[in-house]
Amino acid sequence: MRKSWWKILTVILLIYTFTVGLLIKIPDLPALEQTARNLFYHVGMWAAMMTLFTVSVVNSIRYLRTLDLKYDIYAREYATVGLVFGILGYATGAIWMSYTWADPNNPLFESFSAVAREPKLIGTAVAMLIYFAYMVLRNSISDMDKRARISAVYNIFAYAMLFPTIWIVPRLLPSLHPGQDGNPALNFKDVSPEMRMVEYPAFIAWALLGVWITTVKIRLSILKERKLAQ
Amino acid sequence: MSSIHHIITLFKKDVLLEIRQQYSFYGILLYIGATVLVLQTAISEPETKVWNGLFWVIQLFICINAVAKSFLQESKGRMLYFYSIASPTDFVLAKLLFNSLLMLVMSVISVALFILFLGNPVEKVWSFIGLVLLGGWSLSLVFTFLAAIAAKAQQNAAIMAVLGFPLIIPQLLLLMRLSNAAFNPILTIPVNTILLLMALDIMVILLAVILFPFLWKD
Amino acid sequence: MKKLKHLIAIAALLITNLSVDAQGPKESSVDQLMRSNGRIYVVVAVMVTILLGLIIYLVRIDRKIGKLEKLNR
């Protein structure tokens, strides 16, 4: 019981997200209407993804400091589950997009290229590609210690390169392209205080859920390693 | 003191090797020439946006080709030898220095060929050349480190591209936007972005210095 | 890697399904439903997608544990 308090917290926060998130009054924005509630669900996926990738990098650093293969398993599993949340983020984003951004008179495929150019989407696409590349790199090396070391190095390097991308580029591009940042859906600065009351707990809930799933996977992999070692 | 000496010696060794076996230098040169010629026959006078996009994409491929061999060419025995005489930091700094120089030369050549064969849409030539040098430098730094990773994974240049493309997208994007300003006489080139690119380059060097020792051990 | 492939395939399926909806006649029934009631059904669709995704993932982990149990026996 002592160790599982955060799992209880996860469940409580998730219930809060799903009930209060659907019940609170939200400001009525023209194109968004009620879909603004997706902030708690769709954007929560990205919050969870970024958290999981961050934890993965922390474990890669721990691996390089201790050379304990346990941390390599941690790093791998956090990256995998982060990718799962990223894919869910894309799937939900596609649904949301096709009923808000995409013009009903315009087929989705034609408006897709305009949508894909959004700086925020570039950031997440890069993040996903980096971790797919991380998986490719892992699979290309057969020696276990070597794989752990090289992939940890790549993980740290890529993450360090990714961070400026996600934080700076979206802030920079609109200033280079004035007049093109008129998209209400991506302008989360005008989130109302009531929505913030749900937004932050929701993000924490999704991130914790991701961590929970990952710990289960880690326990499974460690068991498997032990079984193979016998 | 001795560390700088080591770096210079290793750098000289790379330059000497390059001068002795010129096939790689001329190989890349031929690569640039052939690409530009193909582009010229396909689209003789591209408009500025196309010109800009093509230029940076080809710059990217040149960089991969130029930098890929820098670690792959070192055999296992030779690496062991370097291991005994130099520290990993010196070694990686020498490589970064050499590849930067190589890429700067290649950038100048490719910009000259582009302007010669595909027409000159650039309004501010000098600032564009400055941007090209900065871009070439950024590309070479990132791909040098990735070449080290790929070499350690005993893979070919293909995995380097897989690892590198997502990382280089943001920088390439910034470079393209910046050089767009150089094509247009009205737009000024934002200094902030240039500073950001330089900060990224310095970060890459720092990361390489910190992380390379872990790749080095075998 | 295999699991990723599966997930990608599922995501691709979802996306293509959607585009079929969006490409159909301007006022298809799905479209009408999605745009009614302040488009609340978009939120529902998003939540269902997340739930489905997590359940599929859960089933995969479940199967893996099952395999391990078989090995242990």
Describe the model.
The complex is a heterotrimer of chains A (230), B (218) and C (73). In chain A, 79% of the residues lie in helices and 0% in strands. By secondary structure, chain A is mainly α. In chain A, helix 2 (38-66) crosses helix 7. The longest helix of chain A is centred in the last third of the chain and has 37 residues, at 193-229. Helix content of chain B is 85%, strand content 0%. In chain B, helix 5 (88-118) packs across helix 8. Chain B has 218 residues and is mainly α. By secondary structure, chain C is mostly helical. Chain C has one domain. In chain C, 85% of the residues lie in helices and 0% in strands. The chains are: A mainly alpha (230), B mainly alpha (218), C mainly alpha (73).
Radius of gyration of chain C: 17 Å
Indicate how many domains the architecture of chain C comprises. Answer: 1
Number of helices of chain A: 7
Number of strands of chain C: 0
Identify the overall geometry of chain C.
rod-shaped
Task: Give a short account of the largest sheet of chain A.
Answer: none
Multimerization status: heterotrimer
Beta strand % of chain A: under 5%
Q: SSE layout and pairings?
A:
The complex is a heterotrimer of chains A (230), B (218) and C (73).
Chain A lengths: L4 H19 L14 H29 L2 H32 L7 H9 L2 H22 L3 H33 L16 H37 L1
Helix pairs in contact in A: 1-7, 2-3, 2-6, 2-7, 3-5, 3-7, 5-6
Chain B lengths: L1 H19 L2 H20 L5 H25 L3 H10 L2 H31 L6 H28 L4 H27 L7 H26 L2
Chain C lengths: L1 H22 L5 H7 L4 H33 L1
Short overview:
The complex is a heterotrimer of chains A (230), B (218) and C (73). Chain A has one domain.
Pick out its properties.
heterotrimer; A: mainly alpha; globular; C: mainly alpha; rod-shaped
